Amino acid sequence: FTQGFVDVRERERNYKRGSMKQGRQLMNLHNNEAGRRAVIRKTRVNCKCHGVSGSCSLITCWQQLAPFREIGDLLKDKYDGATEVKINRRGKLQVKHAQFNVPTGEDLVYLHESPDYCKRNNTVGSLGTQERICNKSSEGMDGCGLLCCGRGYNSQKVTVRERCHCKFHWCCFVECKTCVRVVDLHTCK
Q1: Which of 44, 85, 121, 176 registers the highest number of CB atoms within 10 A of its CB?
Q2: Residues linked to residue 164 through DSSP beta bridges, in sequence order
Q3: For strand 83-87 and strand 58-64, is the pairing parallel, antiparallel, or unpaired?
Q4: What is the pLDDT of residue 5?
Q5: In sequence order, what are the residues at sequence separation of 6 or more whose Cβ sits closer than 8 angstroms to the Cβ of residue 51?
Q6: For the whole model, what pTM was predicted?
Q7: Cα–Cα distance between 84 and 18 in angstroms, integer?
Q8: How many C-beta atoms surround the C-beta of residue 147 within 10 A?
Q9: How many domains does the chain have?
Q10: What is the β-pairing status of strands 133-134 and 109-110?
Q11: What confidence tier does 16 reach under pLDDT thresholds 50, 70, 90?
Q12: Mind listing the pLDDT tens digit for each residue in 28-57?
């Protein structure tokens, strides 16, 4: 079902054999299949016993999808190890650099390097990460170490005014006080 649904837009187009458009079409179809295989690979079989006092006289089993995060982590690992390919004159994808292995149906492939999102790039609409607010204590995507792309960050103390000590009055309004606090603000260099 998913193959017919996800791949339909790619399969309904006929591009010139060996063209870049056909290359993108084949890349998308390959990666769609790799995504389906990742979902299948992470699918689990769950079983439940039925019977008097846990006798398990009848077992019901079913397949269950893994949590979305688990599938996403697997695909992220595959993205990090994706193989660069090119389209040949016969209209087939082939490995761009001969020293690399031919990708399996579970591997992801790409035709072009991704743009550097650390730097401003008007062509792809990326503002870069310079002057972006980052979280000094985070090791995740919002952390200064990752978000600032190794350029470091500036820190400053900022006074923030915010609503606080809010109370609901019958009927029907909320009254708040204004609190002032000083916070550390970190921005990418």
Answers
A1: 85
A2: 177
A3: unpaired
A4: 79
A5: 57, 58
A6: 0.64
A7: 16
A8: 21
A9: 2
A10: unpaired
A11: confident
A12: 999 999 999 999 999 999 999 988 877 888
